[in-house]
Design goal:
It contains 13 helices and 30 strands. The chain is α+β, with helices and mostly antiparallel strands. The protein starts with a strand and ends with a helix.
Amino acid sequence: MRSILLSGGSGKRLWPLSNDSRSKQFLKVLRNPEGRPESMVQRVWRQLGQSGLASEALVATSLPQVEILTAQLGDDVKLIVEPERRDTFPAIALAASYLYSVESVSLHETIAVLPVDPFVEKEFFDVLATLPDLLDKSGADLALMGVVPTYPSEKYGYIIPENTSSENKESNRNSKFYDDKQDRYVNVAKFQEKPCESDAAAMIEQAALWNCGVFAFKLGYLINLLIDMELPIQYDEMLKQYGRLHKISFDYQVVEQASHIIAVPYDGYWKDLGTWNTLTEEMNAPIVGKGWITADSTNTHLINELNIPVAILGLSDIVVAVSPDGILVSDKDASPRIKEIVKHEDQRPMYEERRWGCYRVLDYTRNEGGDEVLTKRICISPERNLSYQYHRLRNEVWTVVSGTGELILDGVSRMVRQGDTVIIDRGMLHSVKAFSELEIIEVQIGSQLIEEDIVRVATQWQDIVKTYVKHA
C-alpha cells in the first residue's frame, strides 16, 4: 500500500499562530513521548513510521509549505508539489500520476489518502493497513475509514451505510459494528454534510460514521478515470497542464460518483484539532513559552512565541495566544469565531519556519525616499544553508549576532562570525552555511519587500561550492 498525505491549504482558525504560510499542522504545541515539542504533522509522520507505513508514503502539498515540511520532517520525505493550489482532486491526481509514471507503481496497488493532521492513536493506522485486503474482498471502487461517533456532532460529515435491520443495528452498536468473524466493513448508501444535531442523532441510530477524510482505491481506478476525463497520466505532462484542472474536491469529483463504496469503522480515539478549544484539550501543559497563569485560573492555556512574559491572573476557561502576527485573548468556546474576524486580514506572516531554520520579522517601515525597510532576525541551524540567491528589488545588510559560518558572496567564500557585517546589493549572489547555530539580523531596503523577490539558482551546499565558488 502507498499512502498520500494531503497537506494543502492554509487557515486562520488558530490565529495568530496559523497564517497563510504556517497552517495548523505545523504548530509545535504538542509533546512527543520524550516530552519535546511536536507539531501535528510530526506526530502523524512518527506514527506512520511506528506502523511501518512511512517508507511508502509521500506528502502532496503546495509550494509555500515545502520549506516548513522539509524543516519538520527532514530532507528524506518525498514531496509532490502542486504548481498552484487547486483543491484535493487535482492534488491527488498529480500524486497518482507520479506514482504511475515515475515510480512505476502497479495499477493493482492500493493507494490510501489521509489528512496530514488527524489526532489519533496507533489503532487508527492498524485499521488503515486493512484497507488493501478489504478492497480486494469487497470489489469496491473505494474504501473509506469512518469514525464511530461518540456524540451527535454538527461539525462533521457523516457516512450513511445501506439499510440494516433494527436487530442488526443494535448488534452493530454493541459490538463495535461487526462480529470479529465477519469482515469489518459496510456498504455505503450516501453522505451527509454537517447535519443539525437532531439529524445527526438519527443518523447515529442508523449506524452512521463520521467522515474523517481517509479513503483508499486501486491506482488503476484513478488512472482510468483520468484517461476517461482526457487528463494526462504522465507526471511531467500533468505538471504542465495542472492549471486547466478544475478546482474541485476529490469527494465531489470521485467519491460521490463511484458506484460501489465501502466504509471501514474505526472505533478509537480521533479528534480534529482545528480550533483553539479542541487543540488545548490535547496539550499536556497549560503554558507554552514565557509566562505565568495563577492557580485560580482553571482550564486556561497560554501559548506565547515571543520573548516577553505574559501573565494571566484569575481568568478561567480562556486561551491566550501570542505571536509576532498578533495577540488572541478568547473564551475557549468563542475561539472558533476568530476565523470570521481575521478572514480579510492580509498582513504578511511575521514568522516562518524554513528547511534551514526560521526567521522573525522585527520591524517594518517606509523611509522618506519611499523605500520599504524590513528588519528580520534569521536563525540558521547547524550544517544548514540558505539557497544561493539574488534579489531584483532590494539591498540587504547582515549583522552576525552569534555563531560562525561560511559566506559565499558573488562566488567568493569567506568565514563569518559574531560582529561581522555583510553588505549585499541587489543582484549579488549570496548564501551562507552555519557551522554552529548562526543568528543574523537582516535589514532589507527596497521598493518592494516580498519573498517572491528571491531568485534561487542552487539549493544544495555541495552544488553551490562546486559550481559557483571561484578558486584561486
